[in-house]
Amino acid sequence: MTVIEVQHPLVKHKIGLMREADISTKKFRELTGEVGRLLAYEATADFPLEKTTIECWSGPTEVDQIAGRKVTVVPILRAGLGMMDGVLDMIPNAKISVVGLARDHETLQPVHYFERFVGQLDERTALIVDPMLATGGSMIATIDLLKKRGCKDIRALVLVAAPEGVAALTAAHPDVRCWTAAIDSHLNQQGYIIPGLGDAGDKIFGTK
Ligand code: PRP
Ligand code: URA
């Protein structure tokens, strides 16, 4: 299973709140960050630990630490920026790579307009963040870019996925796992997820 629908009650509750038609920009933005944080918690559950000895108040003590893992968070512009800070709250030492893609409203194909990757991608875990997996085109294009630069451990975090996007992502990149707060019913004629959240970028940035 490449796409994992997180069943945690906090995740389910918060994504439900995000579906309110008249939600404010402030509330939508806050919830985007909160669900991003919870998805990051789930997506890092298999990070290996190693033992290290520290000086504790009671003397030298062996504690766990994450074993030399380098992480880059990869927001897909624009809407991915809304999830980025939540993920960085959990992984504050992560470096940030940015991919700019905008979906053409007619063809639904992603149009690439920006990229800036951090170095050593071959040694890093990439956590791609984007609220919506609709046709899957934007996510697949971002994974293509990361793989071309040698990245081998790629994980995706999305708020809502459409079955069409799940199928496309699974077919294109079966090795990539994607954590989502919800898998919804279908895409409408305009490529919007139903019931979905509407236009996530507009709701996070307050445009339209
Ligand atoms: C939205 C969303 C994803 C993409 C999903 O971005 O944030 O990036 O569409 O659709 P897909 O799975 O069919 O590719 P959009 O292109 O609207 O840009 P924005 O983030 O700037 O609003
Ligand atoms: N992009 C969005 O913001 N929402 C959708 O439902 C599909 C693509």
UniProtKB/TrEMBL annotation:
Its cofactor is Mg(2+). It is an enzyme of class 2 (transferase). GO terms for molecular function: uracil phosphoribosyltransferase activity. 5-phospho-alpha-D-ribose 1-diphosphate binds at R78, R103, D130, P131, M132, L133, A134, T135, G136, G137, S138, D199. Allosterically activated by GTP. InterPro entries: PRTase-like, PRTase_dom, Upp_B, UPRT, UPRTase/APRTase. Pathway: Pyrimidine metabolism; UMP biosynthesis via salvage pathway; UMP from uracil: step 1/1. Its EC number is 2.4.2.9. This is Uracil phosphoribosyltransferase. It catalyses: UMP + diphosphate = 5-phospho-alpha-D-ribose 1-diphosphate + uracil.
